[in-house]
Amino acid sequence: MSVPTSGEVSPRSPPSDVRWAELASGGVAEAVAVLSNRVLTIANRHVAKGAMLRDLAAALQEFAGCSAIGIRILNQQRGIPYEAYVGFPEAFYRLESPLSLDTDYCMCICVVKGQSDPALPPATPGGSFRLGSISRHFGALAEEQRGRFRNVCRRFGYESVALVPIRDADRIVGLIHLADPRQDAISSELVQVLEGVAAHVAGSLRRLWTEEDLQRAERLASVGTLAAGIAHEIAGPLGAILLAVDVAQRRLECPQGKETLRECLDTIQAAASRCERIVRSVQEYARAGTLPRELCGVRGVADRAMEAARDRAARHSITLRLSGAERLPMVLMNPIEMEQAIVNLLVNAAEASEPGREVHLRVWAEADQVRIACGDRGCGMTPEQMERIFDPFYTTKLRTGGTGLGLSIVQSIVRQHGGTIDVRSTPGRGSTMTIALPACSGA
After folding, report:
1. What CATH number is given to the structural domain containing 65?
2. Residue 226 lies inside a defined structural domain of this protein
3. Domain encompassing residue 333
4. Cα 190 from Cα 58, distance rounded (Å)
5. Where are the alpha helices (DSSP H) in 46-163?
6. pLDDT tier for residue 428 given thresholds of 50, 70 and 90
7. Cα(307)–Cα(237) distance, rounded to whole angstroms?
């Protein structure tokens, strides 16, 4: 079980400079306004729930002037652990934090459930409980009534206790627990102030929960995109393997088929090797979180990409041509990733071209960059299409099996390498996509 550090406050949390003892004469409304401003200032500074609640607990303790404050938050398991506390001993935390709505019974449980109990003083209109003296109150109860409650606060020497629900609309999502060894140390007016402020605590929690949900959804979407991207990348080599097997089977009985069989086996070997490189690269990504990079020559990567894309271009009766300098400045990259990016550009250009056309890949150095341009004389794109071409799953080739991930993957790879990708296109005249990568000085 994770233990919040008692009294731990974010280093950026300055003193609140507001205290109930100084504001009491001005009335509850003024105190609510002042403390609400303080609470919102703290909440808006944080993006993590734990740090926000720790700072809030410290500010509320300083404002209330009591010995200890804890903030319990209802979780999905119907527990109400202390997400932050100040002043309570660690032994108290370890004993009280694991409370469950389903198996335990105490004042905290009653508050979070919105229930009353004949053995407790009447709840305030806001649903809070307050005791000025635990020993005096429970001493007046029958033993049977006392036995239903855990009464841990009394065992740790606290006399004054207040429990203020944290409400998110009509739902109680937690509570603020105040405790002090002095009798009558927590006034009913202070409880009213905290009831007014608790709504802001709930609103801040809702904001953070919403952000956490969005981040969780983004992570799930990223996993889905990665899986679909892998399938997208491996589909090409697998298609080449299946085509080569089909050709080989057709030529098995042909006396002159030996050379064709050898070519088919070479194709299968090259495509299988590419699949292996893709899988290995993904495995390394999963283990390390970042793909390994090394100084590489772009021309060599472009040569391999041309060979990998040639068969797929040939299916559309498209020829590929590579031009540019053989020797270029080195680039720090993952060569498998960059090869995938260039293959995606070449295949995308081939699929956009009319049969018999040519796709031209050019590499050159310019200033402190190495550039890779892929141009076609295909159908081109409208301005509306250009605005969306890098969106995941956007495709104009749905009927032919396009997933809409190819160019999204290209953009992601290029950005991860500190590069940019520029698109120029004219409807009916073709498109050119240019990758610019930072060259390594002196390499």
Report:
1. 3.30.450.40
2. no
3. 292-443
4. 16
5. 49-64, 90-96, 107-113, 134-139, 143-146, 152-155
6. confident
7. 12
Q: What is the model's pLDDT at position 289? A: 35
Least Cα distance to 419 among 431, 428, 411, 409 occurs for 411
Q: Is the pLDDT of residue 382 over 70?
A: yes
Structure tokens at 50: 């734990």
Domain boundary among 181, 215, 249: 215
Q: Is 70 helix (H, G, I), strand (E, B) or coil?
A: strand
The rounded distance, in Å, linking the Cα atoms of 81 and 74 is 7
Domain count across the chain: 2
Q: Are residues 76 and 209 in the same domain?
A: yes
In a domain, 10, yes or no: no
CB 22 within 8 A of CB 38: no
Question: Last residue of some domain: 215, 249, 275?
Answer: 215
Cβ-based burial of 18 (10 A; exposed 0-12, middle 13-18, buried ≥19): middle
Has residue 268 been placed in a domain?
A: no
Same domain, 299 and 205: no
The Cα 344–Cα 350 span in angstroms is 10
How far out from the chain centre does Cα 208 lie? 13
pLDDT attached to residue 223: 63
Tell whether the model's pLDDT for residue 267 goes beyond 90: no
Give me 246's structure tokens. 């089909």
Per-residue pLDDT tens digits for 302-322: 999 999 999 889 988 999 999
Is 279 inside any structural domain? no
CATH number assigned to the domain comprising residue 428: 3.30.565.10
> Which residue matches tokens 């956009």?
352
Total Cβ atoms within 10 A of residue 295:
11
pLDDT per position as a tens digit, 168-219: 988 999 999 999 999 999 999 999 999 999 999 999 998 888 877 776 666 6
